[in-house]
Amino acid sequence: MLNSSDATEDAIQPVPLPLDGELRPSPPPQLSENKGVVKAAAVLAIGNVTSRVLGLVREIVKSNLFGASDLLAAYTVAALVPNTLFNLITGGEMVSSSLVPVFSDLASKERRAELWSVVSSFLSLATAVLLFIVALVMVFTPQIAWLAGARNFSDGSLTAVTEEMMRLATPAVLFLSIASILTGVLYALERFTLPAFTAAVFNSTIVIVALLRPDHIDSLIYGLLLGSFLQIVLQLPALRDGRFRVQFNWRHPAVRRILILYAPIVVGLLVNQVAIWISYNLAILTGDNSVTYMNYATTLYQFPLGLVVTALSMATLPTLSQIVIAYHASKHSDAAAASARVQEFKQTLASGLRLVLTLILPATAGLFALATPIIALLLQHGEFTAQDTAVTATVLRVYLAGLPFAAIDQMLVFASYARKDTWRPAVAGIISIVIYTVTAVLLLPAIDLYSLMVADAVKHFCHTMIMLWLLQRQLGGLRGFGISSAIWKSIIASALTGLVAWLAAWGLEVAIGNLLPLGGFLGKLVLVVVAGGLGLAAFLALVRLLSITEVQMLHRTLTSRLRRRPPQAERP
Questions:
Q1: N- or C-end of the chain: fewer Cβ atoms within 10 A?
Q2: Predicted structure pTM score
Q3: Domain count of the fold of the chain
């Protein structure tokens, strides 16, 4: 469950669209043909790569300084509070479901003054609410730490350490939330560059502060506080034309619309956070450092998810929102134009889903095949032992069963948010979280810690199936847009890619074991780079052999941009 709730350390970031009659879909355009979306996706992808790389660096530093120690587990539990508050109040779900769609309606130059007024009101209201909540946490920290699972630590002194760090960490939610609201404004204005790097600044700050005070676990908390504040500072230059002031006009229709859209999300998120807190309690029952293993595996799990899906989803969201606006503007006066908008919406969503599938499936296979050598290379040094590597690798592999579904689901949820439909994803979330909790509790006696990973995969599968069923009912589905063909081609390519990477790693262990000590950094590096490179080469060969056009077109688009030439059209 932890892999869906890592916002504290990776923070960045109902009007259905009916289908009036059965439409025969025309051949879908490639996503890369939409220049605005590709440009935004490229910026966000670079930001995500930078952020995820620095996130890995953060975990490397943590593993070197603190390994999988009980103190690091106490820090993880303490950081749960600002993480939970951020997710519930102004986290990434609010940005995508409420802030971007509503702010996008006011983003035109003619309505820019109204936009700044709405943003000012929302910032003022959010700040007041957050300050009150932070004060409550400070007063009731012992009780909150007890609920978070600190009571289950076998070493009683860890409870006191958790409470102390929890008090210190909680004010970060104020900075994280303000930064998140500013990100929503900039996304609506289609100014992606600076908000794309907020998480990178956040992660680098934690790394620097931790290295400055390497013997103190609370250095991670100070890095969290400073990093969350710098997220705000980073985005201010892109808001130089903003006109902010303190005001509490909560009656403004746009402010009320944000709250109305977000109300069902809060219900779903509340259930989700309850499940996360339950998972922390269950994990600690299996061992004081179990949450630490989960956290390390989460970073690697989220690397491909953040790189591929978040960039495409957030870049596509404003485009989908504009299509919905155009649809509602024409549905009463021009039926043909309205039908065309429905078709455009489905084409944009389908092209995004195809590209996500063709990238996330081979990434999942490669990460599964090379889980142990990758973790050994990145984390197994300092205080992190070979036993820690073995446990973390198993946790990661079980998590990966749900990664493709999480990728598909995120795109479907963003598409629903673009239609200002937040109730249905929330209900789907509640159902899947209940399934998660029941599955974890039932499996815990049999498979211990790994029950939480199995339950997480089941959760992602169930939520995706529900969202696909809803899409079928609302838009008639996406049959005829090439998704089935993309799935089968990607599965074949991914299976062979993973097999090549695994065989290469096995062969290298035999071949270089007598030449290089595999326990040393150089041996680990050679193993990962060569095996990973052979897996990548196999995938690229299969892309050409199986004619996976999404990857081919993406390559041509990126190459043409580097050469400053327009991409060539796809040949029939």
A1: C
A2: 0.78
A3: 1
